[in-house]
Amino acid sequence: MEDTQTILIADSGSTKADWCLLHMGLPHYYRTSGISPYLLSENRIREILQTELVAHLPRGMHVSHIYFYGTGCAANHHQQLMHKLLSEFFPAAQTEVHTDLVGAARAACGQSAGVVAILGTGSGLCYYEQGQIVKYRPGLGYILGDEGSGTYLGKKVLQYYLYEIFDEELREAFYEKYHETRDAILDKVYRQLTPNTYLASFSRFLSEHRGHYMVENILEDGLNDFFFYHVFKYKESWTCPVHFVGGVAWAYQDVLQEICILNELQIGRILHKPIEGLVAYHQAGILQS
């Protein structure tokens, strides 16, 4: 790949997507709503691409390569859908669609070996070496799985509030912040679109009340569940660095570090967003080509 070519890189979660247009070696960043072909309709994805991305790119820009890393892209038909939609707007580009785990692994590890965890709106884990995912534990989604994720933690917050487990201090703080009734919460969880992102929004309540023993219990239990169900299932977790990527990982890295120390795991990089690591990965690819 020549450095005169322009590549478009995307890292998309359920809530938001970070994009970088890499032209002449210089990055230009953009943000759109999250794009998940698992959760959103074809028309909704097309609308996001048109109004939130393409409309803001430089006119006449020729994009030669697209690398899209996203949640909900594990299934082949979802990858094909994203390839089709991106090709509608960038017909001349060579397009690759990968899972968000591949993106997280490339951002955190580059070409080195490591165990990589995503802890964002959802969660996932893989073992990565030589530029490829070698092992992958498929998740069960936000209803049955996504342990340690924003959705998982937000669900716990709602349970503690609605079951009146929170003490008076936290119950009052919750109501003052959200003014949500039981009926309104249940309607948004069971009847509205993207309940996973709605649930995940309540995980922020935890970061605002660090130090309260109930908050710390939710964080420790939720993140320990991720280690128990996923990290501990890989023998490589004790022979390679364990990297963490995502907003939850970034916000609660002190809890992750403590769990790693207690279990004699080597903690690796903790990245808030994969996009800058992905830009570095593809810039290195340009230089090597």
Strand fraction equals: 15-25%
Structural class of the helix and strand makeup?
A: alpha/beta
The CATH architecture of the domain at 6-106 and 274-288: 2-Layer Sandwich
Mean pLDDT: 91
Overall form: globular
The separation of the N and C termini measures: 5 Å
User: Main beta sheet: strand number and arrangement?
Assistant: 5 strands, mixed
Q: Give the helix tally.
A: 13
List how many beta strands DSSP finds. Answer: 10
State Rg.
20 Å
Name the poorly predicted regions: none
Can you list the strand order of the major beta sheet?
3-2-1-4-5
The helix content, as a percent range, equals 40-55%
Q: Could you give me the name of the CATH homologous superfamily of the domain at 6-106 and 274-288? A: ATPase, nucleotide binding domain
What's the helix-strand series? EEEHEHEHEEEHHHHHHHEHHEH
Classify the fold: give the CATH topology of the domain at 6-106 and 274-288. Answer: Nucleotidyltransferase, domain 5
Can you characterise this structure?
With 289 residues, the protein is an alpha/beta fold. 45% of the residues lie in helices and 22% in strands. It contains 13 helices and ten strands. The strands form two sheets. A five-stranded mixed sheet has the order 3-2-1-4-5, sandwiched between helices. A five-stranded mixed sheet has the order 8-7-6-9-10, with helices on both faces. A hairpin with a 3-residue loop joins β1 and β2 (16-23). α1 runs parallel beside α2, α3 crosses α13 (275-288) and α5 (150-162) packs across α8. It comes from Thermoflavifilum thermophilum. This is BadF-type ATPase.
